[in-house]
Specification:
mainly alpha, single chain
Length: 149
């Protein structure tokens, strides 16, 4: 792998973190430390709803990732399934949640980062377009549901 190809791949690998579990938990902790209990509850509820939805969907419908993962138990099978993209769901949920705190330019940046996060999953061969689009729709749907509560 050439240097440019390596850095190109590394950039997409780094971008995928915005839909990752660790990043989400760090945001949860930061919001809690800053004392915004309402936002903390919204973020936590969103995470629980997205996780529950993805696990249920993947239990009922298994779809191999573009780069197949082997599995030996039910938890590994859930992880090996690609539909829908949980990273895309979390990225769009977070973008929509934090958009209310920003001016127009900041909102565009958040949506752009969420879209790049979704694309990173395709580039890294974890998902295809359908997985990412349905993950995005899941994140938007969960955000809407949480905002109603």
């Amino acid at each position: 792998m050439g240097v440019i190809t390596k850095y190109w791949h590394d950039t997409w690998r780094d971008l995928t973190v915005f839909g990752g579990f660790g990043f989400y938990v760090l945001l949860l902790l930061l919001v809690l430390v800053l004392g915004n209990l309402t936002l903390f509850i919204h973020l936590l509820l969103g995470l629980v709803l997205m996780l529950a939805s993805v696990v249920l969907i993947r239990l009922l419908y298994f779809k191999n990732r573009p780069k197949k993962q082997s599995y030996t138990n039910i938890l590994e099978k859930i992880d090996a399934s690609s539909f829908p993209s949980l990273h895309a769901a979390k990225a769009f949920f977070l973008a929509l949640t934090f958009m209310s705190f920003l001016a127009f330019g900041g909102k565009i940046v958040l949506l752009f980062v969420a879209a790049l996060t979704g694309y990173s999953r395709i580039h890294l061969q974890k998902h295809d377009w359908i997985d990412v689009v349905f993950g995005m729709l899941l994140g938007i749907g969960v955000w809407y549901l949480v905002m109603l509560i």
